[in-house]
Write a structure and sequence with these properties.
Blueprint (H helix, E strand, L loop, with lengths): L6 E5 L3 H13 L3 E5 L2 H10 L4 E6 L5 H11 L7 E6 L7 H7 L3 E4 L4 H13 L13 E4 L2 E4 L4 E4 L2 E3 L3 H12 L5 E2 H8 L8 H17 L6 E4 L3 E4 L7 H7 L7
Helix pairs in contact: 2-3, 3-4, 6-7, 6-8
């Protein structure tokens, strides 16, 4: 039985740069599709089995951050690895990209071997194409089941779609049980390279994690530890004071 070739969606308005990426990626065994506008990219990501999205971030264009924001707002696309390839003069878009929920940034020019190595480790492995993936280790808490190898999450039997950052944050919280995790620890867990990440960025992604887990019908089990960070705590779900605290906690500094 022939295995499916992993599919990469490229968002770019530059045909020459797209063709360069096609040459690099197809030689490595990827299928590649082009989207040149926000709506087209989101549609292609929704309708196809896309393993990763590469967004060409150029000076004077807002395609990359606007597309990323839309992708991370859609339940069908929020979990797709989304990478910005940041061109010369577009470094000022880093903050916009982080706010939009980008999973990784690379500053161009990037060595093809580095990009291919990243995709091999973070896309092929997570999509289940790795030959020795197995069933992984299961972490469980308050109806949440997280598979560390398949990179899947379920709550009360319902699949939960998480982006890679939210997945890493949830895994770290679950591995630490009901212990408080500082924002500094969460930054190390969620952003291993820790580029341009501050406490407010952590708050934004924890807010997204909360929303994704609650969609599955469960109550909020992530508790804010004031002036510190976050922890899992299912023991205070019925406490009205705790519920009031949660109403504005994701804007904490």
């Amino acid at each position: 039985m022939t295995s499916r070739r992993p599919q990469i969606l490229i968002g770019s308005t530059d045909a020459d740069y797209y063709l360069l990426l096609v040459h690099i990626l197809e030689a490595e065994g990827y299928d590649v599709t082009l989207g040149s506008g926000v709506e087209e990219i989101v549609h292609l990501a929704r309708e196809n089995h896309v393993d990763a999205i590469l967004l060409d971030c150029r000076s004077g264009e807002t395609l990359a951050p606007e597309t990323c924001l839309r992708l991370k707002q859609e339940p069908q696309t929020v979990g797709i690895m989304t990478v910005a390839l940041v061109g010369p003069g577009a470094e000022g878009r880093f903050i916009d990209l982080l706010k939009a929920g980008i999973d990784e940034n690379f500053v161009r020019p990037i060595a093809p071997a580095k990009l291919l190595g990243f995709l091999r480790n973070r896309v092929l492995f997570q999509s289940g194409s790795h030959p020795s993936a197995g069933d992984g280790r299961i972490l469980a808490y308050a109806g949440i089941e997280l598979n560390t190898v398949r990179h899947s999450v379920r709550r009360f039997g319902i699949s939960v779609h998480l982006g890679p950052i939210e997945f890493r944050l949830l895994q770290f919280l679950m591995e630490n049980g009901e212990q408080a995790c500082s924002r500094a620890q969460l930054i190390e867990a969620g952003w291993p390279e820790r580029r341009y990440v501050d406490a407010k960025t952590v708050n934004v992604h924890v807010g997204r994690l909360r929303k994704a887990l609650n969609v599955a019908g469960g109550s909020d089990v992530i508790r804010t530890v004031r002036s510190s960070g976050y922890m899992l705590d299912a023991s205070r779900l019925d406490d009205p004071h705790e519920a009031a605290d949660r109403s504005g906690e994701d804007t904490d500094g």
